[in-house]
Amino acid sequence: MKKFKRPLTYLFLSIATLISIYPFFWMIVSMTNESVDVTQGRQLPGTHLFENLSKLFDQVDMVTALTNSAIIAIASTFLTLLIASLAGYGFQMYRSKGKDIVFNILLLSMMIPFASIMVPLYRLFGKISQTAPFLGIDTLTAAFLPTITTAFFIFFFKQNTKMFPKDLIEAGRIDGLSEIGIFFRIYVPTMKTTYAAAAIIAFMNSWNNFLWPLVVLQSPDKQTIPLLISNLGSSYAPDYGMIMSAITIATLPTALVFFFMQKHFVAGMMGSVKG
Amino acid sequence: MKKVLGVLVTLLLLITLAACGGSEDEDTSGDNGGEGTESDGPTEVTAWAWDPNFNIRALELAEEAYDGETELDLEIIENAQDDIVQRLNTGLSSGTTQGMPNIVLIEDYRAQSFLQSYPEAFYPLTDYINPDDFASYKVEATSFDGENYGLPFDSGVTGLYVRTDYLEEAGYTVEDVTDITWSEYIEIGKDVKEATGYNMITMDPNDFGLVRMMLQSAGSWYFEEDGSTPNLEGNPALREAFEVHKAMMEADIVRLHSDWSQFVGGFNSGDVASVPTGNWITPSVKAEESQAGNWAVVPQPRLEVDGGTTASNLGGSSWYVLNTDGKEAAAEFLANTFGSNEEFYTTLVEEIGALGTYTPGTQGEAFEAGDEFFDGQSIIQDFSNWTEEIPPVNYGMHTYAIDDILVVEMQHYLDGRSLDEALSNAQDQAETQLR
Q1: Which part of the chain is the ABC transmembrane type-1 domain (chain A) (predicted)?
Q2: Nearest residue of B to residue A215, measured between CA atoms
Q3: Alpha helices of B277-376 — where are they, by DSSP H?
Q4: S-S: B170 plus which of A197, A258, B195, B339, CB 3.0-4.6 Å?
Q5: pLDDT tens, A177-223?
Q6: pTM for this predicted structure
Q7: CATH number for the domain that contains residue A125
Q8: Strands (E), B57-122
Q9: Which CATH architecture best describes the domain B45-156+315-362?
């Protein structure tokens, strides 16, 4: 019986791999085909790769969209990590009376779907526009500001901070570090892998974010990649070869970020501090 | 060291904020459209539309054709249709005109829901256009409370695209499929399948476009004339549409698809013998050049109910002006081009094959020219004639909501539930949901 176990495992894993890789395969193959071939479900690589790419870069401003997406994703990842880790650290390490209640309220906020706060949020940014146009509607800042404090990341950091030894903090205090100093010079370096894991998730969320940027960014020169792709598919006769090229390009950054930080990501999910 | 860190963090923060706010100073254009109305420079007008080859191109041509008094600086912003709906809904319901355009394209099926939900947000064009100049079904869809809010644009007039070579193989001519009923269509479909092995039609079970085509061709819709009372249970046209739908499935002449690309793939690959749909599909049909000369367009089949015609509409949209600064300039621009310029409509046909609904602008050589792909048939002229015959109906506020209900009931009906029960269930659901 044992003899069969291994081949069976591999068979199952192979099938699962095939199923999960197939959409990517089709995406890349379609990138090299003409629109007509894509609609007819052609599975073989074609010869239209450069045609599709040049059409794409001719017809739409890919570079601007990529730059906008990158600015938003990087800024939002950086701020999310900074704010969420400070909060998570605070919630876990400091004693305070109403702490648990506040934290529970925060967790409850995870249950509110974004769509339901969108209208008030838009109103808010409309007001901001009147006094500070550089933060208001149709600015890249407005596209990421509402997403930088999420209960999920605060929770994520709080949970991981449980593993962080209090002794290190005590040692820091004895050596005369300020509380902020302890955070930046002891906590941050120790929790590197947690930051890496959070960074991947935050980057992906921001890179793929659609609804809020859609509503708040209107000028073509503020367009992000998901908005651009949504536009490409909007015509009565969409060019699928071109759309697939755009999607492939849009997928690359998240794939790269993941590949480079994969090791940290796994470690981060398991907890930063080895007991 | 501590200080260095602090400075670093502050610097990073500043850089990110600055990078994002960077180009704001010179570029706040989209924000409020025409704030410079009173100044000497051109008035800024922003327009939202979808499809670069069709609507966007039409706007660009309109900008070239514009010869009005007010100097305009038109900024055209391309958005997917669903994205426009989302943006408008968020913007209008938050009561902020910030970031809203001056001109926006809205699909006719959705127009009433916007006009009735946000009556203050739109600027009436009644003084700018003559409604009698436009196809009556289009005026009906774009008006509310006695005012014309929309400037009717493209015709969604339908036709039956047929593969002449397949028909021939089954012993039929183009005349045989002209002016037929849906039951005749099904019979022909069976013969075509037997002779060629190809299905007659490709259909998406979740897209009720075909049913809506049938309904409007008989002058009927999901609602009573008030546009809000659901009219499903006792609606003879809807009943027959359901029956035709089921008969097609049972005759095994239907190829199923689940999205747009498979729909287009269905006729590009030669898998189906006919496509009943809106005239806007023409470019997609012509994309498969190897099929040139094998296609013809005839009027869509009709229902056998009272008032059944062979003219109907699927999709199509119109221009609206938002009640913000710059509305007069925007309205003037539309009236000067889409609203009164006959030559402009000839350009539209010649450049992008866009068929308008402005009656005085539907004559001329461009319309009569034969299309080689359709074996010399003047399809534009044909479509344009059929546009005049489309029965006007009130699309109401909830066309797509009813669609969702009916899609489910159709499945039950196909699975064996009686038609009476399916439609009365649908009626109940509609009444509860839309109260």
Answers
A1: 66-261
A2: B87
A3: 282-286, 327-336, 342-352, 365-368
A4: B195
A5: 999 999 999 999 988 888 988 998 999 999 999 999 999 998 888 89
A6: 0.80
A7: 1.10.3720.10
A8: 72-78, 103-107
A9: 3-Layer(aba) Sandwich (3.40)
